[in-house]
Amino acid sequence: MGLVYAAYDPKLDRRVALKLLHVRGPEVGTRRAQRLLREAQAMAQLTHPNVVTVHDVGTADGRVFLAMEYIEGQTLTRWLAEQPGWPRVLDVFVAAGRGLVAAHAKGLVHRDFKPDNVMLGTDGRVRVMDFGLARARDDASGDELPSRPGVDLSTQVTRTGALMGTPAYMAPEQHLGLALDARSDQFSFCVALYEGLYGVRPFSGESAAALGMAVTRGMLDDPPPGRTIPKWLRRVVLRGLRSSPDERFVDMSQLLQALQVDPGRRRRRLAWGAGALVLLSAGAWWNEWRGWSTPQAPPAGPCQGTDRHLRGVWDQGRQAALSQAMAASGSPMADATLSRVEQRLDRYTAQWVRMRTDNCEATRIRGEQSETLLDLRNACLDDRLRRVDDLVAVLERADAEVVQRAVSAVVALPSLGRCADVVALRNRLPPPDDPAVAEAVLGLREQIGQARARLHAGRYQEARALAISVRREAAGVGYRPALAEAHALEGEMLDETGDSAGAERALRQAYLTALQIRHDEVAAGAAAWLTYVVGYRLARHREGSVWGEHALAMGLRVGEGKLAEAQARHNLGALADATGDTEAAKEQYERSFALRARLLPQDHPDLARSLNALGNLHSRRAEYEKALARYRHALELREQIFGPGHPEVAGALNNVSIILRRQGKFEDSVQALRRAVEIYESVRGPDHPELAQSLDNLGVSLREGGDPAAAQAPHRRALEIRERVLGPEHPDLGDSLVGLGRALCDQGRHDEAEPLLRRALTLYEQGFGTDHPVVGSALIGLGVAQRGQGREATARAHFERATALLDDKAPGTNEAAEAHSLLEGSDIATGKPAPVSPPTD
């Protein structure tokens, strides 16, 4: 059907798999072209971890192309050639089956499921691909389609009765040219699974006709000798291979459920419990047990039973303790958070077991890697499991603050992918030669892991005390890699606990120490933190941008799937945004988001952060529909990741409300903000800066919606919170001051409003510089207050400055339009001709 190339997308800076239709004459409008377009359409409808992602489809130079997710890995065909054990085969096929379930939920039938159309990535994730023969399952039209480039998924590309698919995997109804549905994919799935379990296919024939006869008549071959497959599993697979679709499972979901229910497990539990009976019938029991073995049975080979390492780290006992702690925390988010934490820890540890097992098999069974590499990978994986142990220990003492941060803490567990990066593992700095020093360094790194677990779970004071202790101990040990790590840890802790100046000093020391010894991972992380601490916390934007360039350079050198580069670009985008350079911010944010979307799971919080940042940018550029789409996507992600009552959701609601307000949808905006305020008050308490921001936004929506009197209360409360928590000189107070001042102006109380607006202008200029867009909003408010007092000349001066600033830094925004409108009104009042307003986007 086509050729697939590894390609590069320069616009989004990512590798892609590029599929081109085979050249056999004119391409556009042919059935092959229509089939490829339909493949893209079918796959683009699916967003699922076990389905390959489609990025783009189109034509170039008369050829149809499809740009898909680039996957490092191998097809199931190649993987099955390595003869993995049946438990691993079953795990992989169940994952692929989930991809088919997702397709069927969209009304799609794959029609060509086979091992060649399934990829197993090096990250352990299974993806179904090549939906080139898929069509809507209720499509029963029989006419061949005339050639034309526009084709949708319900179009019948082949004549009814035409033989499509790969004969060895086709269902009986497909061989007979009858209508297909999801049960046809079920049959193909079971053919492939049978092949994976036994090493041969269930049906054979020396010609397509002979094969078709065997399939349609249910003439299965006998399984080959030497492969012991549990009887229950064979029964499930054979049911999926029945000739009549009505005799198979109702759907793929029911099949997958049957594949994961092992009746032998209960039988073994009963047998172990009845000890005397076991002794009396030992021979008979042993023979039966051998026929019902499962992954939970005693290991039959050197690489089985890897899940035993999870005992005492993440098992039923730890899960029960965590559940009790969450329930006792009193947090309104406890139940929703517990469910999400358990799901993520289950997923993380399951991947850990797969990687540990595969690492063993690569050396002990397949012989494809050395003992040295086995030890390096195992050491990396063991470190990751210790981090799980550290985190669960913190979560077992959960209070309301820990519950709030629990999901983020699990997300922050170190990447398992790093343990598969051979180059990175071999380039790690060697341990100290002195055994005593090496032992001390091991202890230091254990404490660093424990401190990070406390940091990510919100136990800031505990984490800070431990970080300072570790740094002092590291200085005494004298091993500089550990000292750099300790400085970096201390810097992060100091920043999280509000000591930005101390954080800068510690992070600088971490960066310089790491740079001297080529500890690139620590250097990249320290530079990224300095970008934020120096550029945003301490408002030294230009210097922060320099640190951002260092972070980007180090991130590119570190590699690690380019996630370090993604973080560096995000921080650079934030600094460009803070200084009003929206073009530079847009470039950095988009490149960061593209990297994250390619490298991270679809339910990762960093994707929501990128969407939020892009939404902010579109908002500043007056691209309100784009902004609203980004914000709503981020809101949906955060509700999925954290639950509907989480502060992260409240932040997303704030952003959505701002765009709704700018679109004149005031009631919807107020409704979203009231929900955000309710979340913050419930979770954060009555004195939090994020609550203040929501209150200010609520006041603006009330005022612009026509109720300035009602707007006063939320603005006054927000101002009190900010002054108490941030201090009287923080630039964020300007938001409350401007909001309150404008509400007073709308009530004719201009003399009361003017000092508030002057103070806001001063705070903005001191904190953000004289050319930041927020300065324009303070200038507008101040001009309105002065005009209300009859001081037209000074008002005009402020409107002129606001217009020039906003035209330069925020053209086309509501604020820029208001500045122009007010300036025109001022010119009319003084008898001067009004300038022409610039066009809006």
Summarize the structure in words:
- This protein is mainly alpha-helical and 841 residues long.
- Strands 1-2-4-3 form a four-stranded antiparallel beta sheet. Strands 5-7-8 form a three-stranded antiparallel beta sheet.
- A hairpin with a 4-residue loop joins strand 7 (118-121) and strand 8.
- The protein is globular and about 100 Å long.
For the record, give the distance between the C-alpha atoms at the N and C termini, rounded to a whole number. 44 Å
The biggest beta sheet, please? 4 strands, antiparallel
* Low-pLDDT ranges: 136-163, 265-300, 827-841
Number of strands: 9
Which overall shape is indicated by the principal axes computed on the Cα atoms? globular
Structural class, by secondary structure, is mainly alpha
Q: Main sheet: which strands, in order across?
A: 1-2-4-3
